[in-house]
Design brief:
By secondary structure, the protein is an alpha/beta fold. Helices cover about 30% and strands about 20% of the residues. The chain is built from three helices and six strands. It has a two-stranded antiparallel sheet. The N and C termini lie far apart (about 45 Å). The model has no long low-confidence stretch (mean pLDDT about 80).
């Protein structure tokens, strides 16, 4: 159950529409909980804002030059079978590999090029004892980079 600004518990499904936002530049378990709590508070609609452009200047350190495009997905394939400029699809495990292969089948049916299917096996996050946040992860990355530079 969420706690409102006035510190009173807010029952689930209390609001017709709920909005939240964030950088979501380093996804972690805290983001999952954040999204889950917002979804539980909503009855009809949830709006998720994702930072872009100037909001990421000092935060997106991996590849700040990337254009980040967020698309709603209303079917199992989403933009993967429509966007002719895509070159690869990333799947989260060997178990989700069939989904990537299914995308290529649909792309072939539509006359689109095949995507290179890349499997990225997800591993559990390290426990830091700190609040799980993008800021914490940025600090850890900077600390690791500094240690690597010092040798």
């Amino acid at each position: 159950m969420a706690i409102s600004e006035d510190s009173k518990p807010t029952p689930p499904n209390s609001f017709g529409a709920v909005v939240l936002g964030g950088t979501f530049d380093r996804l972690h378990g805290g983001h999952r909980r954040f999204l889950k709590e917002a979804a539980e508070l909503a009855r009809d609609r949830i709006v998720v804002g994702v930072c872009d452009g100037p909001m990421l200047i000092n935060k997106q350190s991996i590849k700040p030059e990337l254009v980040v495009q967020v698309e709603p997905i209303t079917n199992p394939y989403g933009p993967s079978i429509i966007d002719e400029n895509l070159e690869a699809i990333v799947v989260s495990s060997k178990e989700t590999l069939p989904g990537g292969l299914s995308v290529n089948k649909k792309r072939a049916e539509r006359g689109l090029s095949q995507l290179k299917v890349e499997v990225v096996d997800l591993v559990p996050e390290e426990s830091t004892g700190d609040k799980l946040s993008s800021t914490t992860l940025r600090k850890l990355e900077a600390e690791k980079a500094r240690k690597l530079q010092l040798g």
